Structure to design on (229 residues):
């Protein structure tokens, strides 16, 4: 089975621009979560989607948004980029949402650099 | 609120020595705990997870962890370090009643000296 794929792997943007990152979960997985990883703040939860609905949201400003499509693929969007948005964005998928035995499988991440 | 704390941001061991990475949790409900490993420029890979079955959990690559409720700990161990174990390790807790949301510790970077 193919793993979680994220595109693009690397991205360079300038302040004020917007960006869209894509995540394709493992086949059959319906839950997709997004995390931001920075040296200062570590790994922080952004949001989770399940069956095209946002189930949970982390503590991020409204500039961060996401969606999930009927095939479970997910995108996240960051508008009006700031320097502090430079980070590794990780996507994780799991078969269902919230099961105690569920495992989240992570993709390789998208490295976003904001200049 | 649930949280995890990893003691020591950097740990260095010699090849063949015991690896011990510390994780303490805070949770008012029975926690579900995970250890992930991250190699440079890669995503996170699950090493093992505790979901209230056995308290001693065996994972991949010879790692294991023991859930100790009395000490609120879930330390990761490996009897003999290998050079390929050099990576960053994250302890995480699944947030109760919030789907798949994980809260991660700050991570521990493991160095292995020849």
């Amino acid at each position: 089975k193919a793993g979680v794929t994220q595109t693009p792997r690397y991205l360079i943007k300038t302040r004020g621009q917007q960006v869209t990152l894509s995540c394709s979960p493992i086949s059959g997985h319906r839950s997709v979560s997004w995390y931001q990883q920075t040296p200062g703040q570590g790994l922080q939860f952004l949001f989770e989607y399940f069956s095209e609905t946002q189930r949970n949201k982390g503590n991020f400003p409204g500039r961060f948004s996401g969606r999930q499509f009927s095939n479970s693929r997910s995108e996240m969007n960051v508008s009006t980029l700031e320097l502090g948005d430079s980070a590794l964005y990780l996507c994780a998928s799991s078969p269902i949402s919230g099961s105690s035995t569920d495992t989240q499988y992570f993709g390789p991440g998208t490295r976003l650099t904001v200049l | 609120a649930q949280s995890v704390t990893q003691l020591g941001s950097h740990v260095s061991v010699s090849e063949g020595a015991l690896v011990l990475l510390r994780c303490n949790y805070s949770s008012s409900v029975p926690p579900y705990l995970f250890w992930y490993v991250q190699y440079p420029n890669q995503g996170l890979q699950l090493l093992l997870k505790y979901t209230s079955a056995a308290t001693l959990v065996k994972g991949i690559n010879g790692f294991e962890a023991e859930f100790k409720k009395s000490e609120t700990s879930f330390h990761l161990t490996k009897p003999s370090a290998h050079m390929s174990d050099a990576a960053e390790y994250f302890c995480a807790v699944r947030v109760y009643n919030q789907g798949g949301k994980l809260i991660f510790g700050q991570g521990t970077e493991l160095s292995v000296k020849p």
